[in-house]
Design brief:
- The chain has 420 residues and is mostly helical.
- It has a single domain, classed as Growth Hormone, Chain: A, CATH 1.20.1250.
- The protein is built from 19 helices and no strands.
- Helix 1 packs antiparallel against helix 9, helix 8 packs antiparallel against helix 13 and helix 12 runs antiparallel to helix 16.
- The protein is globular and about 60 Å long.
- It starts with a helix and ends with a helix.
């Protein structure tokens, strides 16, 4: 590893670690869910949390392709976008929550969800460009390991953040406890993004080149991606898996209910640290596994753990059930991030990786918006156990599809090279 790669790896680990700590302090699946439930949110609104998070992050990514065309200025522009148009919404939510008692519950729920949606939209605009930028910084031989270490440290810090959030929620009266969490998260997120200014981007040494985006060529690259048989199979498997695990916010709802053991809200928020621990171990192990054996292997491990965690949700109650459910959700989430992202990189059949990432995430976004909304309806109509059973069937189908229909991209690339 050359000196620039070592510097960039260290900076990436530091920045992601800080980001993971603040993200866990205000995790939608625990902190936001508990906050909204306290102010009268029903199952449909809770179901919309995942839909908003996924849709806002995945659907607007094509906008970033048009906004961030300069490779030389990409680092500065991406970081300024975070500082000016993403992080401020954490402070907005924190301020709103401080005055929640002066608002009607319905008004507070509306403004809190809007603030959350704006935060996620800001991330969504730049996600594909950010992932392309990171892929440009690290070659395929070290990318999975660097990402795995970074996201492992991020999740470990998130474990501490979740434990801290649980302590704050238990110790400080509501709504001020939640306000403190969001305000602190905003300050830590600012420090995280400032860290990335230390990245040594080789593109910064190139002549400034900001070509106009050719929409026709962009659409053609979208079509080229979707014509690829293995990429389509990969997307189908991932959409089935996403539909089968659209219930993460309902873990908190279930285990605070009588059917799940009636755990106190602070206990559930603290046990949510098991999810970040699962994300940490999953990222570290699956990133390394993917570099050596291919990232399809990481998808299979994540799919199997997803199935197991849903079985736990159906059968277990109390603290141990909650702990295992969150830990399994963390490993499955890690697979859906590090293994999925690297599969996106490696299934690209043409010269525009950012277009490939964008169209893949856009297609995924359709499911990750609709499935949580349907989960909310199902939970309200039939109850948690029926919802978890449906998700288990979908998750088993996803795992079988990944096993029998999705091929390792490196093997496909080797065969293509042999044919040529």
């Amino acid at each position: 590893m050359i000196a620039r790669d070592r510097n960039n790896a260290v900076v990436n680990v530091a920045g992601e670690t800080l980001w993971g700590f603040q993200a866990a302090m205000v995790a939608p699946a625990t902190v936001l869910t508990v906050l909204l439930r306290e102010y009268g949110a029903g199952e449909r609104l809770i179901g919309s949390i995942s839909a908003i998070e996924s849709g806002a992050v995945l659907l607007p990514q094509v906008i970033g392709i048009y906004l961030f065309t300069s490779r030389r200025r990409r680092r500065a522009n991406l970081l300024l976008w975070h500082l000016l148009l993403v992080i401020p919404f954490l402070f907005v939510i924190g301020g709103l929550t401080w005055f929640a008692k002066d608002m009607s519950p319905a008004a507070f729920r509306l403004w809190a969800i809007l603030g959350f949606a704006c935060f996620q939209l800001g991330i969504g605009v730049i996600l594909a460009v950010w992932l392309d930028w990171l892929a440009h910084l690290f070659g395929p031989g070290i990318r999975g390991t660097v990402f795995g270490i970074s996201f492992c440290c991020s999740a470990l810090a998130g474990t501490l953040g979740a434990l801290a959030a649980g302590h704050v929620v238990q110790s400080i009266p509501s709504p001020h406890a939640f306000s403190y969490l969001y305000l602190a998260a905003g300050m830590i997120a600012t420090l995280s993004i400032a860290t990335f200014f230390l990245i040594r981007d080789p593109a910064a040494e190139e002549a400034d080149n900001a070509p106009r985006v050719d929409t026709g060529k962009l659409v053609a690259r979208f079509k080229d991606s979707l014509r690829n048989v293995n990429f389509r199979a990969f997307l189908i498997g991932r959409m089935l898996a996403a539909a089968g695990f659209s219930i993460i916010p309902f873990i908190a709802v279930h285990f605070t209910s009588a059917d799940g053991g009636g755990l106190p809200r602070g206990t559930v928020v603290a046990l949510g640290a098991a999810m970040t621990a699962g994300v940490a171990l999953g990222n570290l192990g699956l990133g390394r596994l993917g570099d050596h054996a291919g990232h399809r292997a990481g998808m299979l491990v994540g799919g199997a753990v997803q199935v197991a965690s849903l079985v736990v949700m159906l059968l277990a109650v109390g603290k141990m059930g909650c702990l295992l459910a969150y830990f399994g959700a963390g490993v499955a989430t890690a697979s859906g991030w590090i293994s999925h992202t690297n599969m996106l990189y490696e299934t690209c059949p043409h010269d525009s990786r950012v277009a490939h990432i964008t169209v893949g995430n856009f297609v995924m976004g359709v499911v990750t918006i609709i499935a949580p909304l349907l989960s909310g309806v199902a939970a309200a109509r039939w109850g948690m156990h029926t919802l978890f059973a449906i998700c288990l069937v979908l998750s088993v189908c996803a795992l079988l599809w990944l096993v029998f229909r999705v091929r390792e991209p490196r093997e496909v690339a080797e065969e293509r090279g042999a044919e040529l």
